[in-house]
């Protein structure tokens, strides 16, 4: 059964990565909650899985002309700095705290999606961020 859950987590993460949404928002909770993997190990697995899935998605999106170099030059530098700094935090902080921070992020993400979706519906357009 464990292998089935690993396949489900991989497929779900790949689907989200292919859409440019980041598979970790689903992969990490599946690994932690369904398989009992530690938060830190789940985040490491997600980072390793992200490299090939992100490269594949980037190749497809670039090939279709969907990647804007203008946006990347502004988004990439602060993203690299933030990822580096937060990686140190994630490696040092207690696993329970790490899980709570990640869970809080998911709750905020979901709430933001609900609020922006409701506002978009009132305005007569499709929802989401």
From TrEMBL:
GO terms for cellular component: plasma membrane. Belongs to the 4-toluene sulfonate uptake permease (TSUP) (TC 2.A.102) family. It is a multi-pass membrane protein. The keyword S-adenosyl-L-methionine does not apply. The chain crosses the membrane at residues 44-62, 74-91, 97-120. PANTHER family: MEMBRANE TRANSPORTER PROTEIN MJ0441-RELATED, MEMBRANE TRANSPORTER PROTEIN YJNA-RELATED. InterPro entries: TM_pro_TauE-like, TSUP/Inactive_protease-like. Keywords: Cell membrane, Membrane, Transmembrane, Transmembrane helix. It comes from Candidatus Limadaptatus stercoripullorum. This is Probable membrane transporter protein. Its main location: membrane. It is found in: Cell membrane; Membrane. It holds the Pfam family TauE.
């Amino acid at each position: 059964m464990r292998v089935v859950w690993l396949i489900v987590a991989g497929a779900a993460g790949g689907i989200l990565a292919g859409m440019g949404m980041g598979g970790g928002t689903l992969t990490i909770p599946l690994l932690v909650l369904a398989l009992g993997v530690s938060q830190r190990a789940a985040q490491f697995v997600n980072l390793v899985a992200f490299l090939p899935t992100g490269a594949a998605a980037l190749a497809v999106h670039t090939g279709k002309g969907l990647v804007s170099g203008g946006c990347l030059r502004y988004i990439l530098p602060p993203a690299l700095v933030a990822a580096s700094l937060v990686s140190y935090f994630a490696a040092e902080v207690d696993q329970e705290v790490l899980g709570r921070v990640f869970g809080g992020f998911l709750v905020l993400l979901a709430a933001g999606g609900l609020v922006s979706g409701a506002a978009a519906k009132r305005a007569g357009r499709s929802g989401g961020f």
